Amino acid sequence: MGDNIGMPVERMNGSARAVLVVEDSENNAAMLEIAFLGIPGTAVLLTASAVEALRILDNRESHVRVIVTDLNMPCMDGYELIRRVRANRRLANLPIIVVSADTDPATPARIAALGVDAFFPKPFSPAQVRRKLEQLLDGSTQ
Fold first, then answer.
1. Is 142 within a domain?
2. What pTM was computed for the model?
3. Which of 20, 33, 36, 103 is surrounded by the fewest CB atoms within 10 Å?
4. pLDDT digits over 75-127, tens only?
5. How many independent structural domains does the chain possess?
6. Cα angle vertex 79, ends 77, 80, to 5°?
7. Residue 41: CB partners within 8 Å, gap ≥ 6?
8. Is 59 among the domain residues?
9. Cβ atoms of 31 and 1 closer than 8 Å
């Protein structure tokens, strides 16, 4: 995976709107990265781990504006990541998009109760996820 996590935050353009993609599937992460890289003024940070995502979010210099996460990951799942983000006063209002293969019929209601902004079941359309991401970055809730 073209893991940008190793990129020092200082090297990111200070005006860049960072999108944190938390996805353990290299193929899905690559599809999302390609779709998002075309958004002007946006930097894409990739990680395969919710634990690493929390470390990135704890860095006040990361400029993360939106989180795009899977639900089913090893060590810590996306549900726990979302709960921890929502419980953190500084991060609580970050928009979150979920892209998941979870087929449990209760999943959409479960993540909605956690305050997720959008849900895309896998297989997903990178173009649709990108459109929603652009709306969230621009402050629109359409």
1. no
2. 0.88
3. 103
4. 999 999 999 999 999 999 999 999 999 989 999 999 999 999 999 999 999 99
5. 1
6. 70
7. 13, 15, 16, 17
8. yes
9. no
